[in-house]
Automatic annotation (TrEMBL), chain A:
GO molecular-function terms, A-Z: protein heterodimerization activity
UniProt cross-references to CDD domains, sorted A to Z: Trm112-like (cd21089)
Full protein name: tRNA methyltransferase activator subunit 11-2
Gene Ontology BP terms: rRNA (guanine-N7)-methylation; tRNA methylation
Organism annotation: Ailuropoda melanoleuca (Giant panda)
Gene for this chain: TRMT112
Superkingdom, taxonomy of origin: Eukaryota
Lineage summary: Eukaryota, Metazoa, Chordata, Craniata, Vertebrata
TrEMBL record, chain B:
Family, per entry: Belongs to the methyltransferase superfamily.
Region: Disordered, residue numbers: 392-445
Skewed-composition ranges (Polar residues): 425-434
One GO CC annotation: nucleus
Name of the protein in question: U6 snRNA (guanine-N(2))-methyltransferase THUMPD2
Superkingdom assignment: Eukaryota
GO biological process assignments: tRNA methylation
Start and end residues of each Ribosomal RNA large subunit methyltransferase K/L-like methyltransferase domain: 248-386
Assembly description: Part of the heterodimeric THUMPD2-TRM112 methyltransferase complex; this complex forms an active tRNA methyltransferase, where TRMT112 acts as an activator of the catalytic subunit THUMPD2.
Subcellular location: Nucleus
Organism encoding this protein: Ailuropoda melanoleuca (Giant panda)
Catalysed transformations (reactions): guanosine in U6 snRNA + S-adenosyl-L-methionine = N(2)-methylguanosine in U6 snRNA + S-adenosyl-L-homocysteine + H(+)
Length: 104, 477
């Protein structure tokens, strides 16, 4: 799944997924999937990002060039938006079909 | 748009007149769509068809999402008068329907050709004119006028009866030279139109004609004519596309009917940057339709069934939308999403026996309400049963008691009358399910989900309701 989705899911319960499933990411499972850059879309996603979870994920996956937080005037900062675009939409973990089946 | 002269004819400056068939209940959506997408004018809806005028070309016409089929209008008239039982009279009327105003046929053909960019050279034109009005069915097509009518015109009132007689053939031969080309086609056309036995006798067999051609026969015909005769109008048209608009090239395996899925998405007020969730996405039809129309949006689909999700995944890949739509295997009653994180929810609530009314629906709505932003929109497709139950307990100032309490009392009591039980037992409908266990007989919509509007639509054999809710800021939770 995209890191954006992972971010959304992991902010539900900090550090732990639903029903006690840790949403741990594994560095071995990362794929980069090129996606067309759409600055408007990325700009709108920024407010939805849970930064702590994102930075933790980025760390686990050894991603570089990850902004530490929203910067002032990010909506017009193409460099920032492109970095976020890459992190949120092009980095994929695991198979595209995320299985978060609840335990038991 | 100025008139465009071409070799084969002319393009009217004001645009061409079309009509579409649409599933029952989708007509208002279609009218809105032709106005928005095609800048259509003179839009009217009459008995199962939407008529409109537009200058749009084929590429734009192809994008219509809430229509079944699209036709170029040849003529639309008052209904044939069948008050007299004289077959001859009816016959003459039909003849007049076809023969009168040849200009309307010719101009429609010429527009049609322009639309399809057929070769407009003179010699080919004259050769083609011999058979432009005959019906055609290509080998692989199952286009069948009778099938068209019965499938789409559920309100078709009567079948018309006419008797084929020699005098008709003679009558057409008497037409002037102007119509020479059409004579042969007239005969064939009228041969095709109707055959029947004496009218008033109920026991006699009466039928409409369907004409199927394949092989070399099919290749001689270039066009198809569609006719619908009922008590409201007589309409003649040419289908613009071989394949119905409702059959989408980008959907590999359809779940919900694509026109309904699009209509639901169109109600959801999707804006760029929104997070749209379908928590029971099945094969993903709704998300596909939405993502095609509103691409700058973050779509998430969820389902508990592996097979459905695999089908959805296939569909996404086939449509090239796998970057736009995320799929999760999670349950709608336990969504791993933060509260108030979703902007829009669109879903087809499963009908039928598998889903028990009452408690299940309650949990589903509850979870949907939780994850939705205040001000967010929910659009659901509900069976008639679900809708009836939700309707019987509209909020409108009704005080909500404990939310989500699973007590033994039917929920409606809490909703309407916290005190008295007996008052309501009369009003509980007889179709209520097991009352005993604490299942709700009626489901109160949740305090902050306010119904906005609903539309009754046909799903073929059954009906359903598209219902829209908005989450308002709730008090006392």
């Amino acid at each position: 799944m995209k890191l954006l989705t992972h971010n959304l899911l992991s902010s539900h319960v900090r550090g732990v997924g639903p029903r006690g499933f840790p949403l741990r990411l594994q560095a071995t499972e990362v794929r980069i999937n090129p996606v067309e850059f759409n600055p408007d879309f990325v700009a709108r996603m920024i407010p939805k990002v849970e930064w702590a979870a994102l930075l933790e994920a980025a760390d686990t996956l050894h991603l570089v060039e990850v902004p530490k937080g929203p910067i002032e005037g990010y909506e017009h900062d193409e460099k920032f938006l492109r970095q976020m675009h890459h992190v949120l939409l092009e980095v994929r973990t695991g198979p595209s079909l995320a299985s978060l089946a609840t335990a038991g | 748009m100025a008139a465009l002269p071409t070799d084969s004819g002319w393009w009217p400056a004001a645009g061409a007149r079309f009509f579409c068939t649409a599933g029952r209940g989708l007509e208002p959506f279609l009218m809105r769509e032709v106005r928005a997408r095609l800048a259509a004018t003179q839009v009217e809806y009459i008995s199962g068809k939407v008529f409109f005028t537009t200058c749009s070309d084929l590429n734009m016409l192809k994008k219509l999402k809430s229509a079944e089929r699209l036709f170029l209008l040849i003529k639309k008239q008052f209904p044939l008068n069948v008050s007299s039982v004289s077959k001859g009279k009816i016959f003459n009327e039909m003849q007049r329907l076809v023969n009168d105003d040849p200009e309307s046929w010719l101009s429609a053909i010429s527009i049609w050709k322009n639309l399809l960019e057929l070769d407009a050279k003179e010699d080919k034109l004259s050769q083609r004119d011999a058979n432009p009005l005959k019906r055609k069915v290509e080998e692989n097509d199952i286009i069948n006028p009778k099938k068209l009518k019965t499938k789409q015109m559920q309100e078709l009132q009567e079948s018309r009866e006419c008797q084929l007689e020699k005098q008709m053939e003679e009558a057409t031969v008497e037409q002037g030279d102007f119509l020479t080309n059409r004579e042969k086609s007239q005969e064939a056309f009228q041969n095709d139109v109707v055959k029947a036995v004496a009218a008033p006798n109920q026991k006699d067999l009466t039928f409409r004609v369907s004409c199927r051609c394949s092989g070399s026969m099919a290749k001689t015909f270039t066009a198809q004519i569609f006719i619908h005769l009922n008590d409201i109008y007589s309409v003649v048209g040419i289908p613009v596309f071989r394949v119905p608009l409702a059959s989408r090239a980008y959907i590999k395996t359809a779940g919900l009917r694509s026109t309904i899925a699009w209509a639901m998405a169109s109600l959801a007020e999707i804006k760029a940057g929104a997070l749209v969730l379908d928590p029971m996405c099945g094969l993903g039809t709704i998300l596909l339709e939405a993502a095609k129309e509103w691409p700058d949006v973050y779509y998430v689909g969820a389902d508990v069934s592996d097979s459905q999700l695999l089908g959805a995944c296939d569909n996404l890949k086939a449509a090239g939308l796998q970057d736009k739509i995320e799929l999760l295997k999670v349950s709608v009653i336990e969504l791993p999403l933060p509260s108030e994180s979703v902007d829009i929810i669109i879903s087809d609530i499963p009908f039928g026996k598998k889903f028990k009314l009452g408690k299940d629906i309650k949990n589903i709505l509850q979870e949907m309400e939780r994850v939705l932003h205040v001000g967010g929109t929910i659009v659901l497709l509900l069976s008639e049963d679900h809708h009836r139950r939700l309707q019987d307990c509209e909020p409108g100032g009704i005080p909500r008691n404990s939310k989500g309490s699973h007590t033994d009392e039917p929920g409606i009591e809490k909703c309407l009358n916290p005190g008295g039980k007996t008052d309501l037992s009369d009003t509980v409908s007889s179709s209520a399910e097991t009352g005993g266990q604490g299942d709700l007989d009626k489901m109160p919509p949740f305090g902050s989900l306010v119904p906005v509007d609903h539309y009754r639509v046909s799903l073929g054999r059954t009906g359903a309701f598209i219902c829209r809710y908005r989450k308002s800021p709730s008090s006392g939770r």
